[in-house]
């Protein structure tokens, strides 16, 4: 009994240490956003602030075009979530429920595509987007379509691998019963299979949302001169200055950027937990 309690205490202690290590950067970000500007410039490093101020948040909210940046980020993230989840779902159904000659090859190609570093593809993608823009301007440089297209392409491989396990876990007997009752393949996929793999789709959509929402590399590379199409991470650049960075504004902007992510997690947390655990409700 004593050994079991000691083991439980060690596990709790390890969990508490991990929680502190993960939460401390977030705490320091909020704390720095609330510090007065004079305290930040003086290099104050106390773990609390006795004179919290919203001055940094006001500077962020008064940035020209902040609302447009926020709307652009929401449009890109929403389009990537919908597009990547839908494509990955139907691809996962094809790879998990149907047998064809190149199925294994396609799975390996999807896995290999996920292994390529994003930084190595940035320059080739820049020229690809420039050429695509000549034929389809809305998908070219300086348009949100280029960000949506690239982020969707990067989110699909992992989403396929995650959803494939959920789709494969659905019993074959259930599919056969649906066919015996007169259901078509489309009806089985959309009305029976789709609700059963919903937890997995929530998990993949969360990954896609974070990927698109936090992106700075592609936004900075593809949106060159169109100020009206810039996204929220680029707004933080206005607080980086040659002489001295405005760390209060940077931290306040980071806090505001985190709020939509927290809201998204709160909305999907119940299905996200079951999705990451691999549960499929019958």
Q: What coarse outline follows from CA principal-axis ratios?
A: globular
Low-confidence stretches: none
Q: Into which percent range does the helicity of residues fall?
A: over 70%
Supply the CATH class of the largest domain: Mainly Alpha
- In what range is the share of β-strand residues? under 5%
> What number of domains?
2
Total of helices: 13
* CATH homology-level superfamily of the largest domain: MetI-like
How many β strands by DSSP? 0
By CATH, the architecture of the largest domain is named Orthogonal Bundle
Structural class by secondary-structure content: mainly alpha
Mean pLDDT across every amino acid position = 85
Biggest beta sheet attributes? none
Question: And the CATH topology of the largest domain?
Answer: MetI-like fold
Rg calculated over all Cα atoms? 23 Å
Please give the alpha-carbon distance between the first and last residues. Answer: 38 Å
Along the chain, the helix and strand elements come as HHHHHHHHHHHHH
Structural write-up:
There is one protein chain. This protein is an all-alpha fold. 75% of the residues lie in helices and 0% in strands. Helix 3 (55-61) packs across helix 13 and helix 4 (66-97) packs antiparallel against helix 10. The model has no long low-confidence stretch (mean pLDDT 85). InterPro entries: BP-dep_ABC_trans_perm, MetI-like, MetI-like_sf.
Question: What is the topological layout?
Answer:
Layout: H1 2-34, H2 37-41, H3 55-61, H4 66-97, H5 103-115, H6 118-135, H7 144-169, H8 172-180, H9 185-196, H10 198-213, H11 217-222, H12 232-235, H13 247-276
Main location: membrane
GO biological process, one term: transmembrane transport
Transmembrane segments: 12-30, 69-94, 106-128, 148-171, 192-213, 247-268
């Amino acid at each position: 009994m004593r050994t079991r309690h000691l083991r439980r205490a060690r596990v709790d202690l390890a969990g508490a240490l991990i929680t502190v290590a993960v939460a401390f950067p977030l705490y320091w970000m909020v704390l720095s956003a609330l510090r007065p500007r004079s305290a930040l410039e003086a290099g104050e490093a106390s773990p609390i602030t006795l004179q919290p101020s919203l001055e940094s948040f006001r500077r962020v909210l008064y940035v020209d075009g902040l609302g447009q940046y926020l709307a652009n980020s929401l449009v890109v993230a929403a389009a990537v979530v919908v597009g990547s989840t839908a494509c990955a779902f139907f691809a996962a159904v094809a790879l998990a429920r149907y047998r064809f000659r190149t199925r294994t090859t396609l799975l390996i190609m999807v896995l290999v595509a996920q292994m390529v570093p994003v930084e190595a593809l940035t320059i080739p993608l820049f020229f690809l987007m420039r050429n695509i823009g000549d034929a389809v301007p809305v998908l070219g440089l300086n348009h949100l379509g280029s960000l949506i297209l690239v982020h969707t392409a990067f989110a699909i491989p992992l989403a396929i691998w995650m959803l494939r396990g959920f789709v494969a876990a659905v019993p074959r007997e259930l599919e056969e019963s649906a066919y015996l009752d007169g259901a078509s393949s489309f009806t089985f996929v959309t009305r029976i299979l789709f609700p059963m793999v919903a937890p997995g789709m929530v998990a993949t959509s969360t990954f896609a949302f974070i990927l698109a929402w936090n992106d700075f590399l592609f936004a900075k590379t593809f949106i060159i001169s169109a100020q009206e199409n810039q996204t929220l991470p680029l707004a933080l650049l206005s607080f980086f200055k040659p002489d001295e960075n405005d760390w209060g504004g940077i931290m306040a902007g980071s806090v505001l950027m985190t709020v939509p992510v927290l809201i998204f997690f709160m909305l999907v947390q119940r299905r996200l937990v079951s999705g990451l655990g691999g549960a499929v409700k019958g």
